[in-house]
């Protein structure tokens, strides 16, 4: 989909505030409300906007541990990828999972209430999953930048 400057501005504003009213959005991008709504619907229908969500404050919710975990699998175990992928879908502690390049096979982002909860997750679930050879944990000490917003510069050619 070709995005013009108005589409990019709409996306920027919606990323910053997904609850902005169509009226306010239209005013900010200098369109009529009906024209603005048509553009937003076109962005949704094309898949550029995949969904809307609330961003929760994990500290307020008491989730003290944020960890990135590299998982290396034993390749001699039959269907290791399928089995691991299926298992991680049932783990609420895993909030992100990625197949990566390098020495490990997967990178997981894990959230836990505290170190005891994280330790139980690693020992009772992760290490007990068939095919897991090694894990390397990196506990986040401080978050410097975290965003799901894509800057307009990234979206232009």
Automatic annotation (TrEMBL):
GO molecular function: sequence-specific DNA binding
Keywords: DNA-binding, Transcription, Transcription regulation
GO process annotations (BP): regulation of DNA-templated transcription; response to amino acid
Matching PANTHER family: LEUCINE-RESPONSIVE REGULATORY PROTEIN, TRANSCRIPTIONAL REGULATORY PROTEIN
Domain HTH asnC-type intervals: 3-64
GO cellular component: cytosol
Stretch forming the signal peptide: none
Keyword Transcription: yes
Alphabetized Pfam families for the sequence: AsnC_trans_reg, HTH_24
Organism phylogeny: Bacteria, Pseudomonadati, Pseudomonadota, Betaproteobacteria, Burkholderiales
Protein name: Lrp/AsnC family transcriptional regulator
InterPro entries: ArsR-like_HTH, AsnC-type_HTH_dom, Dimeric_a/b-barrel, Tscrpt_reg_AsnC-like, Tscrpt_reg_AsnC/Lrp_C, WH-like_DNA-bd_sf, WH_DNA-bd_sf
């Amino acid at each position: 989909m070709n995005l013009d400057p108005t589409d990019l501005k709409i996306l920027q504003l919606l990323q910053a505030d997904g609850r902005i009213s169509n009226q306010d959005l239209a005013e900010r991008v200098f369109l009529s409300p009906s024209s603005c709504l048509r553009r937003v619907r076109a962005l949704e229908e094309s898949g550029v906007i995949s969904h809307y969500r609330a961003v929760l404050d994990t500290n307020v919710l008491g989730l003290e541990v944020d960890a990135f975990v590299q998982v290396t699998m034993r390749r001699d175990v039959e269907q290791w990828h399928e089995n691991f992928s299926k298992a991680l879908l049932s783990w609420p502690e895993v909030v992100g999972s990625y197949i990566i390049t390098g020495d490990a096979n997967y990178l997981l982002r894990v959230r836990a209430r505290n170190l005891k909860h994280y330790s139980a997750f690693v020992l009772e679930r992760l290490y007990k999953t068939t095919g897991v050879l090694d894990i390397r944990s990196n506990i986040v000490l401080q978050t410097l930048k975290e965003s799901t917003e894509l800057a307009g510069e990234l979206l232009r050619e």
